[in-house]
Amino acid sequence: MKQPPYDKFPDISDDNISLRQIQSPELKDLLEISYYDGVQATTWTQAMEMQTKINADYEQGNSIHWGIEDKLTQKIIGTCGYYRGFDNGAGELGCVLLPQYRGHGYMTFALSLAIDFGRNTIGLKRIWAKTTKENQKAIDLLERLNFIKMSDLEDQEIEFELSQAASVKG
Predict the structure, then answer these.
(1) Would the pLDDT of 163 be above 80?
(2) Per-residue confidence at 155, pLDDT binned at 50, 70, 90?
(3) pLDDT at residue 62 above 60?
(4) Residues 90-124: pLDDT tens digits?
(5) Domain extents for the chain?
(6) What is the DSSP letter of 15?
(7) Which of 154, 163, 162, 161 is nearest to 38 (CA)?
(8) 12-162 CATH choice from 3.40.630.30, 3.90.950.20, 3.10.290.10, 3.40.50.300
(9) Phi then psi dihedrals of residue 4, to 5 deg
(10) What residues contact 42, with CB distance under 8 A and at least 6 apart?
């Protein structure tokens, strides 16, 4: 198993979506969901600066961040990936989707692909995620993918974990 960076940025896909590297021109369409360390970009310049940091994190082996491409339109509609390093065989899975694409199953497909990649390519033994207690749609998504609530955190956040034995269901 090998952690990032890879010789070629990994593109993975199923029948509906592709997970691939985000290109600079695409950032203008992702401004409302451009975040880095919990801070949202408010300008295209900030989004570019954040993407530069995301790319540097990948090159340093600390993360992998994909754009979620709708195969039908070939547009990036969201992002997902692993953040904050891969210490002790663990990876924090995160995601965000443009509002108009929510509720159509895109994130279920995207996270399923990311989970398989994390287990089978990176070799993660622990995959975890966190969200706020108010984000019921994210909680439902994580539970649908066999994540189990592990703990209540500060600032109204909840931590979930996918066990190594759990199979991903869509």
Answers:
(1) no
(2) confident
(3) yes
(4) 999 999 999 999 999 999 999 999 999 999 999 99
(5) 12-162
(6) S
(7) 154
(8) 3.40.630.30
(9) -60, 160
(10) 31
The secondary structure of residue 99, as a DSSP letter, is G
CA atoms within 13 A on the CB side of 28: 1
Q: What is the pLDDT of residue 32?
A: 93
Residue 164: per-residue pLDDT: 58
SS (H, E, C) 100-143: HHCCCCHHHHHHHHHHHHHHHHHCCCEEEEEEECCCHHHHHHHH
d(CA 148, CA 20): 28
Measured distance CA(97)–CA(85) in Å, rounded: 22
Paired with 160 in beta bridges are: 129, 149
